[in-house]
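Re: your question from the hallway

Yes, I did run it. Sequences:
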Amino acid sequence: MKRASEAQLPPRPPPPLPSSPREPSAPSAAPATPGVIGQHYDVLSKVGEGTYGSVYKAIDRRDLSEVAIKRMKNTREGEGISHTAYREIALVRELRHPNVVSLKEIFLVGRELNLVFEFVAGDLAERIKQLRETHATFAPQTIRHVMRQLLDGLGYLHRSWIMHRDIKPSNILMSVDSHVKIADFGLARIFRSPLRALHHDGPVVTVWYRAPELLLGSKQYTSAVDVWACGCIMAEMMLTRALFTGSEAKGNELQQDQLVKVFRVLGKPRPDEWPKLTELPHWPQVSQWSSQGYADLLAQRLNGAQPSPEALSLLRKLLKYDPDTRLTTDQALQDSYFVGSDAHADAGGVVAPSAGASGR
Amino acid sequence: MASSSSSPPAKRYLEFQDSTHSAHWLLSPAEVAEADMRHSFSADPVDVFKAKLLYTQYLTALGRRARVRQRAVATAIVYFRRFYYKYSFLEHDPLLIAPTALWVASKVEECSMQAKMLVGHLAHLDMENSYQVHHLLDAEFHLIEALRFDLVVYQPYLPLTEYLAHPALCEIIEASSHENFRQTAWFLLNDCFRTDLVLCHPPHTIAQACIHMAGTLLGLPSSKWLYRIDIDTQQVEEVTMTLVRMYDYCSTMADRELQEVHAELTSIQWGARRPPRRAN
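Structure:
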């Protein structure tokens, strides 16, 4: 998948490499794990790598706290610091919310930018995988606890006119006690009075979590794309596997497989439930597809997970086809799914052992 | 690891009050004046004002040439002024810092252009300037470090737009004067960037001062509306006075004077850093 690994902390970090002699900022050579970064950080291990650069787990010598250092590579020759890096630097520098990853500092070593974040030991993708492999499931209150924090953090972003545009489990950091923090702002954008239309940024959101309006080529999408991704995540927590697992088509081609996967669970969208559907660039083509095999089977798909009626009802409203009627984060947090529940009790919820019905 | 029990309640959204702009970059006029003295290339403090004005115009011209949007140019001007609050004109060549600021601002404001293209425009604008892409690449790191990586700048354009659209304000001013009033306010706002006002005052205060001054200039009662909303009268007054002083000053200043400052700046030896002049 595209951009799969930004800031993600894979399940089992590789064992700490022997600390090589301090490595100066040698650009092109394959970067070894440095023993020290900057003046204050001792590197423990490399915990992630991607096109953007690498993430290291390190200790701040000054207060012995654990940090994650995202070390940005210079991407395009002759273009200096990339767009993506600027988005991330500019935004994380400003944001402050308990459910948004917090930046401790930024510094330069030679020409390498180092972003120092608080360290969070895991992420939601890893937690889901762990449960799937042990045939366990999330306790319902853990799902609610995660969703509440996710929507809270996202609501803060949206009210601050920021779209994340890459919400997916591996970008949701999660501590052992299920405290959630949204990470990776490389695709995020301020959408208040943008100077350049959003669609010029090319495809956004990893394809499994990509909202239908994006899949159908919408040029004027909104922060509702993040809410769709939250819906996908909620279902994924119930199932311990992703809900819509299409394979990505290359380039600007129609994401046919992903659309098919969505239609098989939610049915084919109709203009009467989504008025602007007919204006979307790919709709003329997609509308020709036979409706055969597409029906609303969401409840059946989730049957094994035995969601409560409130959970299922909220999920449907997060996965509304029409972005204009899809819930906003504020509306979602007002939903009866949350309102009747005790946030403190949810926070204490732990992973329940498998009730035997976790299959499929 | 984050103990949420002891931390204050979460903010609803990002406000100017919580921004790096507010926390690190609202300087007092005295601080700026002091830095000007320290960093000046000349014994006359007015020369620093002129140098900054000159490079504000340079950035505007370069932005227009490179077709960079106004907001990115405004951000570049703020970067430039923040940089020379920290560093001296003697240490760093403004002919390099100005295009670098524009380049970085264009990337941050999501309307980026290629360094190659920008360098091409440089040569057309000023024979003196023969900086190349690799100079910009070096200066980029230097610039953002000087800016403490605080890249989001709150501009007064948005608050001004909001004020101008306010129904109560529209009501106070007769319809036939609306357009004139609007244009005057925008005109004043653009001129604020010729001064260090953007370093010293929050964006909404600058926008309020433009509303106030546009009313005064046109004899319209816009200030009546201003006093109804929550404003810091003293700061608005301060902004207005700074603008008035700037206009007074500029009206008596000959073009020649800016040219002289330009000559003086370009005569500074920036060591081996500045590449030799282009052959004509």
